[in-house]
Specification:
heterodimer, A: mainly alpha, 5 domains, two-stranded antiparallel sheet, 8 strands, globular, B: alpha/beta, Alkaline Phosphatase, subunit A, nine-stranded mixed beta sheet, three-stranded antiparallel beta sheet
């Protein structure tokens, strides 16, 4: 049974209840259908409802639970749980049970039907399930269509779905005459207000009164900076709450660094920021030593109000833009690289980046197309793998680029010296591997030559291990094959092998003979003498003997270097096989690829030492977590069903077709074109997404309630014209300035409404979609912790930046929460219980729960206890010898930014006096762990709902 | 009536109001979720899809991969082939050699005649209550992906754990305790907190990790006590907070959020007492402590019982940090040690669940992320010096279940003659998950969550309810 509407009663909303009843009677009353036939009723009321609300999942394309609601027969036959409806029997019809949401399966799952619609369906069932036209008995419903043609789906979606069409500017409507004059005057200036007002008026409501100045400045301060206002600022604003005073307050807060910090954290949610790569195998560090350079870059960019389009472009392609950006801006690329590393599975990494740039920046769920064409959006696997190719054409360099010097000093000197030593150790070991690998490759020259005869790819996918335990290096085989292909049959050294390597064993002797015969005809110069002599001596008639013959010549040539035996022929053999750049020589850059297991361990250890030193970052240079294009960018094939071993057609790198599908410059990965395509005024999604994102955070609810999904499955906007108009003005009037956008929103009167729940609004619009009041909100983890630090008086706003701090440590209550080092593998429980964003995928808005662990933290967390101690000390110092009244006043002003009411002050003072009576002298004189009445009072104030909530 | 029911009520309010009405308001948590309000981010109990058989789960995780051929899946052929190659050869993580007979003796137990090796004498007393599935199989022979598959239903991608799904689907019955508790003594298993994560589900559904190597309650449960104040002093402080909050509410309300906050505060206060009680095994009589054994396993099994008794929905008990059951070497010694550590406590746990009448409604699952090869692992540079252990085996392994609507005294499925590969009534991990959810009254295809534009579920697009093991 659905819970009864208790709230309006408690609000004393009898009038609204009655009006609602009348309203319902008007919509549902018999006159609505009187005189019309059952078929008309079906066509005008039932069919539209079934189409709009049921058939998406229970229709021809998708029939969840086997149920189809697009024909009478389908309704009667039902699905897995039996008939959907029984003609004339409301009580036994599961359809009715479902839409009334009283049974096991409330439907539609997400968005209940309006009561009026439920009544329509009940009437329809009760009257016998009349069905006319397509879908009626004898006239089958529309045949199940084959999977719709992607082109058609694309064209249809582009033409019909709101977010795929370019946003338009709209004339803001005039203010409703029904509003009181003062509201009409205040709300007339801002287009935002006029759009909102129209919606409120259409529902028969009026806006809420303006919030009291004390509430407003607190809300504004948290909204723009994530910090409480100073009590003195509250007093000043309460004394002069004029529009001018408000405007200058807004300007001051928007210009502050704290504003950039606060919104940077919000952006970092979207960027799925964390300081670690996720799970790392035993013993390996998972720390990203320089993720924070990205965090600090975001703060800096917001602080200078970098236009949003540029902000996006730099985060995707800072390394590719022209003219080149200052090195410091390379840190922007951390956007792409601070995600999980998925234990090295690169396809998951690409997937993460694809999701980030499509869903994160555009609200488009492209990642669904990894395994199949998108079920809902006009996005195909080809779109996905076109983007896959872009990211597969990028790499993270082993050495991250330096973007700034370390602060000079002894730390930097020590760092430089230690680093030089470690780098030398690494280089030396690299040379050892290089020499060993080259020596062994030359020893196995015959095997390498034989490998070039085998077809590729190998059936088992890996190069063979030889009898002596040596593993053939595929790298060298590939290089040798390329060399052979480039050489041709006339090559003096390789010609023979080129001519015979493709021959079968039977044909081999003849083929060799043919070449040696030809040598005689061609004369001395045509062939390498050293080789010829050896071949003549050995008479090789099968592949292996011939390869070994070559190997002997190679070994002799290699050994002869610098000796008296050397001659031009041997030198030519060396040049062909064993000089740097020749096929059997491992290049210094390749040592990691040819290292044996134990060598790899040692090499990794030495590299880890370097990484560990860099990771400390104290004394070392600052580095950016960049991505760069690979030398040879390439397209990706479609992986059938998302499986990398089931290769389909290769897709050229390009933007999704939904965005025009433009191809990228073949010589680059295509990141720059991708970035420009996203941050383009022509992109219908990007500006809408970010405008809605900002709105969501300012109001606690978006114009689109699914801020990460603007696609076909997302919620439609509550105020489409407002969203479009604001998006266009953001780009055109605001020139992509986020500060412009924040100002536009917080200076609106819609935003400045009071948050008190009013009964008539609540009855009509319980979720406050219409913005007929402000939404009360719980502070996020960061704002809550920062408020504790602010109340404690320990917060030092000049600190922050650089490597992160431990946000739970009571010693670090001097630093703002966003400067935490965040391990995505191990988020502290207290932060989780305050719903910090899951750092594994773009989060546009956090879940906000109210659960007991939050209160447990307020009651018992060391962080709170420490803040209470400091707050008590601070308030006692401020009160001096003035006693409890001054103390209580100081606590309130420090913690809640206001003076306590007389009532509150009296309550607190009586409480203190009572507590003190129970306190023995010994307690009072106890050591540092003493937590006396004043400390306890301070903690109590920090644990109040007022501290934790915004009006 | 119609009009009242028809009054528009948002889902978030419904939670709060029904909370007020039914007295579990404290559980109600309000949300502005990432999308529309399509999910209750609350631990309040919710009705399942259909009548459940089990209302709680205890998952005993023998992490590292216990050997099925040494515990619950006897293979006489291994004795016959001792020291010889067997005709089945499947690729596992490392190289293995010839057949390795089990170093442990098997014996039939109970009326069902279930064969259990000598490793688990205390457990074997419950043979007629167990359902051994001998035909389990997973996807790959590596710990990380197999742990993820077993716990989260996907070997690689970031997905919520089974415990998170279950608490999301059903809430939990005791609002004074977490709904999902993961215990692991000494630290984390491989893949750490990912094993009990909530991923994209709200954080309320994440498993609460408890390091059961610790003994003091305040070390076991975060923020369960004030670091300085005694309870009486804190009670007076609590009175002040509640007083201030009521004034605030009177001034600002009525407001469902503030009401929920006040209720949540009061609940936290009760939770302090209840959690301290639940995790404090020293409150058990001496003879009970002795039955479980005064050691880490004894303590954590006892805590598991106390939690389930108090209405906790999902309890996961890991054998220990890292991957203790991973006996690549010296399995005779290592498996014996591991079984000895846990057998007595598991036996006592089952005794108590039976005695308290809880087994009927508590599903107990024991197993690892995979089993082990019937062939001996060869020495290698991975550190194995002597051929005395077994490699990972995901092709076939055993788990056992008990209680909660499971068919007792039953064996389901079989591996081949040697125990290498499940061949008869094969049961994939997704099938196990689908069946567990089924016993809890949840349809694994309907327990979904909308995220990133699509509906996700524990079993992805797989899973079959194996009705053959349901009583």
């Amino acid at each position: 049974m659905f819970p009864l509407a208790l709230l309006p009663d408690r609000l004393g909303c009898k009038a609204s209840r009655r009006r609602l009843l009348i309203l319902l009677a008007l919509t549902l009353g018999p006159q609505a259908v009187r005189g019309a036939g059952a078929d008309d009723f079906f066509e005008s009321r039932v069919r539209p409802l079934l189409v709009a609300r049921c058939q998406e999942c229970h229709g021809a394309k998708v029939s969840e639970a086997g149920l189809r609601l697009d024909s009478r027969r389908g309704v009667l036959a039902g699905g897995r749980s039996g008939p959907a409806a029984i003609a004339g029997d409301i009580d036994r019809s599961r359809l009715i049970e479902a839409v009334r949401r009283v049974g096991e399966l409330p439907m539609p799952p997400d968005d209940p039907l309006d009561p009026a619609d439920v009544a329509v369906l009940k009437r329809w069932v009760a009257d016998g399930l009349a069905w006319s036209g397509p879908g009626s008995e004898g006239q089958e419903g529309p045949a199940p269509s084959p999977v719709a043609d992607p082109d058609m789906r694309l064209a249809e979606a582009l033409a019909t779905h709101w977010s795929f069409r370019p946003p338009q500017r709209h004339q803001p409507p005039a203010l409703p005459a029904s509003f009181p004059e003062d509201i009409r005057r205040a709300w007339s200036a801002s287009p935002v207000d006029r759009f909102v007002a129209a919606g409120i008026a259409a529902a028969g409501l009026t806006p809420a009164p303006a919030a009291p100045p004390e509430h407003l400045i607190r809300r504004l301060s948290f909204d723009l900076t994530g910090l409480p206002p100073a009590a003195a600022d509250v007093d000043a604003f309460a004394a002069d709450p004029s529009d001018a005073a408000y405007a200058s307050l807004v300007d001051r807060l928007l210009a502050s660094r704290e504003h950039a910090e606060h919104w940077a954290r919000t952006w970092l949610d979207l960027a799925r920021y964390a300081d670690t790569m996720g799970y790392a195998f035993d013993g390996q560090t998972s720390l990203y030593p320089f993720a924070w350079t990205y965090r600090d870059w975001v703060i800096g960019a917001l602080h200078k109000d970098l236009p949003y389009d540029r902000f996006v472009i730099l985060q995707i392609a800072a390394d590719l833009v022209t003219p080149p950006v200052p090195r410091a801006d390379l840190a922007a690329l951390g956007f792409l690289t601070v995600g999980r590393t998925f234990m090295g599975n690169e396809h998951d990494v690409f997937d993460d980046r694809i999701d980030l740039v499509t869903r994160g920046l555009m609200g488009l769920t492209v990642a669904c197309a990894r395994c199949h064409d998108h079920k809902y959006e006009p996005v195909g696997m080809a779109d996905y793998y076109a983007l896959h190719g872009i990211f597969a054409s990028c790499e993270i360099p082993e050495q991250l680029p330096v973007i700034g010097p370390p602060p000079p000093g002894p730390e930097a000197d020590t760092f430089a010296a230690t680093m030089a030593g470690l780098e030398q150790r690494e280089a030396e070991y690299g040379r050892t591997i290089h020499e060993r690998a080259t020596r062994e490759a030359i020893q196995h020259a015959a095997d390498y030559l034989l490998e070039t005869c085998r077809p590729l790819p190998r059936p088992d996918g890996r190069p063979p291990q030889l009898a002596d335990g040596y593993e053939i290096e595929q790298l060298l085989v590939d290089r040798l094959v390329r060399k052979l292909e480039g050489a041709g049959p006339d090559h003096p050294v390789l010609g023979l092998w080129v001519a015979v390597r493709g021959q079968s064993d039977e044909a081999f002797p003849t083929a060799v003979a043919a070449v040696t015969t030809a040598w005689q005809a061609a004369g001395e110069a045509a062939v390498n003498a050293a080789l010829r002599a050896e071949v003549r001596a050995a008479h090789p008639a099968a592949p292996r003997p011939l390869a070994e013959t070559f190997a002997r010549v190679i070994a002799r040539a290699h050994a002869a270097a610098g000796t008296a035996e050397d001659d031009a022929h041997l030198a030519a053999v060396r040049e062909t096989f064993t000089l740097p750049g020749a096929p059997l020589v491992v290049l210094p850059g390749e040592v990691a690829r040819v290292a044996r297991r134990e060598e790899e361990v040692e090499l990794r250890k030495r590299r880890r030492d370097i990484a560990a030193l860099q990771a400390k970052a104290s004394g070392g240079p600052l580095r950016a977590m960049v991505l760069r294009d690979v030398e040879q960018p390439h397209d990706s094939p479609i992986f059938l069903r998302g499986q990398s071993d089931r290769i389909g057609e290769v897709v050229p790198r390009r933007l999704p077709r939904l965005l025009g599908g433009e191809a990228v410059d073949r010589r680059s990965s295509g990141r720059l074109e991708l970035a420009r395509g996203i941050a383009s005024p022509a992109n219908p999604l990007t500006a809408r997404l970010i405008v809605n994102w900002a709105w969501t955070h300012h109001f606690g609810r978006g114009l689109v309630a699914t801020p990460g999904d603007l696609g076909l499955r997302g919620d439609p906007p509550s105020h489409p014209e407002l969203l479009d108009d604001l998006a266009r003005r953001f780009v055109e009037d605001g020139r992509w300035s986020l500060r412009w956008l924040h100002r536009e929103i917080v200076t609106s009167h819609a935003w400045r409404q009071a948050s008190r729940i009013r009964c008539e609004g609540h009855a009509v619009d319980p979720e406050n979609r219409l913005v007929a009041r402000a939404n009360r909100r719980r502070l996020d983890w960061e704002a809550w912790r920062d408020s504790l630090c602010a109340a404690a008086g320990t917060l030092d706003l000049a600190r922050g930046g650089g490597p992160g701090i431990d946000p739970v440590a009571t010693e670090r209550i001097d630093v703002r929460s966003l400067y935490a080092q965040l391990d995505r593998q191990d988020v502290p429980g207290i932060m989780r219980s305050f719903d910090i964003a899951n750092p594994d995928a773009a989060v546009h808005a956090r879940v906000r729960t109210i659960v007991p662990p939050q209160s447990l933290a307020s009651l018992n967390a060391p962080l709170v206890v420490e803040a209470a101690r400091r707050l008590a000390d601070r308030a006692a110092a401020a009160a001096g010898g003035d006693g409890d009244e001054a103390f209580v006043r100081s606590v309130w002003r420090a913690a809640l930014s206001r003076t306590p009411s007389a009532d509150e002050a009296a309550l607190a003072m009586v409480w203190l006096a009572d507590e003190r009576r129970g306190e023995s002298a010994a307690d009072a004189a106890a050591d540092g762990r003493h937590f006396g009445p004043r400390e306890r009072l301070a903690q109590a104030v920090l644990a109040t709902a007022e501290f934790e909530f915004l009006d | 009536m119609t009009a009242r029911a028809a009054t528009p009520v948002s889902r978030r309010e419904a939670l709060v109001r029904s909370g007020l009405g039914l007295g579990w308001l404290g559980a109600a948590s309000l949300l502005a979720d990432e999308g529309r309000s399509n999910v209750p981010a609350t631990l309040a109990p919710r009705p399942p899809h259909f009548t459940p058989r089990a209302r709680a789960v205890i998952h005993l995780f023998a992490n590292g991969g216990p050997s099925h051929v040494d515990t619950f899946d006897r293979k006489v052929a291994l004795d016959a082939y001792a020291g010889r190659e067997i005709p089945v050869s499947l690729k596992t993580e490392r190289r293995t050699g010839t057949a390795m007979p089990s170093p442990f003796a098997f014996r039939r137990h109970g009326e069902s005649g279930l064969e259990v090796s000598e490793l688990f004498p205390a457990l074997a007393r419950h043979a007629d209550r167990l359902c051994v599935v001998r035909s389990m199989h997973a996807d790959v022979p590596n710990h990380e992906p197999s742990l993820m598959l077993m716990n989260c239903g996907d070997p690689r991608l970031v997905r919520p754990s089974a415990g998170a799904w279950v608490t999301y689907g059903l809430g939990t019955e005791n609002q004074n305790l977490p709904g999902f508790v993961a215990m692991c003594p000494g630290g984390y298993p491989i893949k750490a907190t990912e094993n009990w994560r909530s991923a994209f589900l709200p954080g309320a559904f994440q498993g609460t990790y408890v390091d059961t190597r610790k003994r003091r309650v305040e070390d076991l449960v975060q923020h369960v006590n004030h670091p300085v104040l005694d309870r009486e002093t804190q009670r007076r402080q609590f009175g002040l907070i509640a007083g201030l909050d009521r004034r605030h509410l009177a001034d600002r309300g009525p407001d469902p959020l503030l009401e929920a906050r006040l209720a949540s505060l009061e609940l936290a206060w009760r939770m302090q007492a209840e959690a301290a009680d639940a995790f404090d095994v020293s409150r058990e009589p001496q003879h009970v402590l002795e039955r479980y054994g005064d050691d880490v396993q004894g303590r954590q099994m006892l805590i598991a019982r106390r939690l389930v008794e108090r209405g906790v929905r999902y309890v996961q008990v890991w054998h220990g940090e890292g991957q203790p059951w991973d006996s690549h070497e010296d399995i005779a010694k290592n498996h014996r040690k591991l079984a000895r550590e846990s057998d007595r406590a598991i036996g006592a746990l089952l005794d108590d669940l039976v005695g308290l009448g809880l087994l009927e409604t508590t599903l107990v699952l024991w197993g690892g992320e995979f089993g082990r090869t019937p062939t001996v692992e060869l020495p290698s540079d991975a550190g194995v010096k002597a051929p005395t252990g077994r490699d990972h085996n995901h092709y076939g392994f055993s788990v056992w279940l008990a209680g909660g609507g499971i068919k007792p005294g039953h064996v389901h499925g079989a591996t081949d003659e040697f125990g290498f590969r499940a061949v008869e009534n094969r049961m994939h991990v997704h099938d196990l998950q689908a069946t567990m959810l089924h016993l809890l009254g949840l349809d694994h295809e309907r327990l979904t969550y909308r995220h990133s534009g699509r509906d996700f579920r524990l079993t992805d697009v797989h899973g079959r309810v194996v009705s053959e093991i349901v009583a």
